Amino acid sequence: MATDVEWLIREIRSLSADDRRRVHQALAAEAPGTGSAAPESGEAEDRAYQELLVRAGLLESVRIRRRDQTSQTSFENFRPISVVGKPVSETIIEERR
């Protein structure tokens, strides 16, 4: 027979990523010594969430993300080009036939 904690972990596993994040924020607000329910920002919030999932047994380890400033800047400055004629997706579909 499963304990309440095991049942709860199974239920959390079935939630969407957004709902899991909300559960994490609610638990962080209840944890002693946190003082407020304000979520951490960006990467720190992601890392804390992943560490919680590791402790719960839902992840094997926390993956470290390294952002290359050059690629990040390139992504932020990306502007699509205009293509004359039919959409490229149509051309791809036709060539696959």
**Major β-sheet annotation:** none
- β-strand percent reads under 5%
Q: What is Rg?
A: 21 Å
Encode the helix/strand succession as letters: HHHHH
User: Helical region count?
Assistant: 5
Task: State the distance separating the first and last CA atoms.
Answer: 55 Å
**Count of structural domains:** 1
Query: Helix amount, in percent?
Result: 55-70%
Average of per-residue pLDDT values: 77
Record field, number of beta strands: 0
Uncertain runs: 35-40
Form type: elongated
Main structural class: mainly alpha
What's this entry about, in short?
The chain is mainly alpha-helical and 97 residues long.
Could you explain the architecture of this structure?
This protein is mainly alpha-helical and 97 residues long. The radius of gyration is 21 Å and the shape is elongated. The protein has one domain. The protein is built from 5 helices and no strands.
Chain-wise SSE layout:
Blueprint: H1 4-13, H2 17-30, H3 42-55, H4 69-76, H5 88-96
Summary keywords:
about 100 residues, 5 helices, elongated
